[in-house]
Specification:
Blueprint (H helix, E strand, L loop, with lengths): L8 E7 L2 E9 L40 E6 L2 E5 L1 H7 L6 E9 L8 E9 L4 H14 L1 E9 L2 E10 L2 E7 L8 H5 L10 H12 L12 H15 L17 H8 L2 H7 L5 H26 L7
Parallel strand pairs: 1-5
Antiparallel strand pairs: 1-2, 2-6, 3-4, 5-7, 6-9, 7-8, 8-9
Length: about 300
C-alpha cells in the first residue's frame, strides 16, 4: 500500500494452524466530497455547535458530558466512558477464520464497509497461499475479531493481488425484506408488456465499470458553488416525467423503438390517396386508348 495511506488496523489472520500479519486499509472514502459549514444568515459567520442542558438551557462543556441510557421519559442511567470501555471484548488482534463458504452465500444486504488487506513483510507466502487457495476453490472466508472497539464479523475475499475484508451487519441490524415489501400489491406482468420489458433489457446489457459512473450530485454541487461565486444564474432542475399506468404499454413500445419505426413509415394521407387514385384513373384511360388503337385496323368498313 502506498506510503501516503495509513493502516486503519494491524493484526493477524489465522486459518488452520497458519498465522501471519496483515494491515487493514480503508477501501472507500468520502473525503473528496464537497462539504458545507453551517453559517449564520444574519452575519455570514460560521456557527459552532454547543451542547445545551435540556432543562437549564446552560451550555455544557465537553469535560462535563457523559453517556446515559433512558429508562423512562426523562429518566437516565449514567454510563461512564470507562464502564463502556470495560465491556469491549479483549482482542488479540487476530482475524481467525471460522469457515470457508461459497462467495454467493452472503446476501449483499449484510455488507457494511470494505477494507483492503495486505500482508506484512514476513507474511507474503502465507498470504499468497490463502489468496490463491480461495481463488481456486471459489470461496470466501468468514472471520471474527475486534475492530474499532466492536466485535465484528468479516467476509474476506480475493481481490486482485490482495484480499478485501468487508465488515458485515449483524442479523438484528438488517431490516426484514418481508416487512418492507408487505404492502406491495400482487401484480403479474405477462404478454406483450413482459416481452417488451425483456426486449428493452436485452438491448441495454453491458458490463460493470465504476469508472464510467459520474457522481452527478457532486457535479451539480460544484456547478452550484461555481455559479454563486461568479454571480451567474443558478441551474434549474429538470422536471421528471413519471410514466402513468395507462401509458405504460405505450412507453414500453416507444422504449423498444416500435413507435418510432411506425412513425418512420410513409403516412397514407388524403392527398396521397387522391393522387394515387388520379394516377390509377390516368393509367386505366391510357390502357383503354391503347387497346382501341390496336383493335381499329381489324374493324370492317361500313
Amino acid at each position: 500500500m502506498a506510503s501516503d495511506h495509513r493502516a486503519q488496523w494491524k493484526g493477524f489472520i489465522k486459518f488452520g494452524e497458519v498465522t501471519f500479519g496483515v494491515a487493514l486499509y480503508t477501501a472507500a472514502s468520502t473525503s473528496e466530497r464537497i462539504s458545507f459549514n453551517t453559517i449564520n444568515k444574519a452575519t455570514g459567520n460560521r456557527v459552532n455547535r454547543v451542547f445545551i442542558d435540556s432543562e437549564t438551557e446552560d451550555p455544557v462543556p465537553k469535560e462535563k458530558q457523559t453517556k446515559g441510557f433512558e429508562i423512562d421519559n426523562g429518566q437516565y442511567i449514567i454510563i461512564d466512558p470507562e464502564e463502556v470501555a470495560a465491556t469491549i471484548p479483549e482482542s488479540n488482534k487476530t482475524l481467525e477464520v471460522e469457515a470457508f463458504i461459497p462467495c454467493s452465500d452472503v446476501d449483499d444486504v449484510y455488507f457494511d464497509k470494505p477494507y483492503y488487506l495486505t500482508p506484512d513483510k514476513m507474511g507474503g507466502d502465507a498470504f499468497a497461499a490463502l489468496r490463491d487457495g480461495m481463488k481456486k476453490s471459489n470461496v470466501a472466508a468468514i472471520a471474527r475479531t475486534v475492530l474499532f472497539r466492536r466485535m465484528r464479523t468479516v467476509l474476506i475475499r480475493p481481490h486482485g493481488k490482495g484480499l478485501i475484508a468487508t465488515t458485515l451487519n449483524y442479523d438484528y441490524e438488517v431490516r426484514s425484506s418481508k416487512k418492507a415489501f408487505e404492502e406491495m400489491p400482487k401484480i403479474k406482468i405477462e404478454g406483450e408488456m413482459l416481452d417488451l420489458a425483456k426486449h428493452i433489457i436485452s438491448t441495454k446489457k453491458g458490463e460493470f465499470d465504476p469508472a464510467t459512473f459520474d457522481d452527478r450530485y457532486e457535479a451539480a454541487l460544484a456547478d452550484l458553488v461555481k455559479a454563486k461565486i461568479e454571480g451567474k444564474a443558478l441551474p434549474k432542475p429538470k422536471k421528471v416525467e413519471v410514466s402513468k399506468p395507462n401509458d405504460l404499454l405505450a412507453a414500453l413500445r416507444e422504449s423498444a423503438g416500435m413507435i418510432k419505426a411506425a412513425a418512420d413509415k410513409p403516412k397514407r394521407t388524403a392527398a396521397n390517396v387522391n393522387a394515387g387514385t388520379g394516377r390509377q384513373r390516368a393509367a386505366r384511360g391510357t390502357a383503354s386508348k391503347t387497346s382501341s388503337a390496336r383493335s381499329a385496323p381489324h374493324r370492317k368498313a361500313s
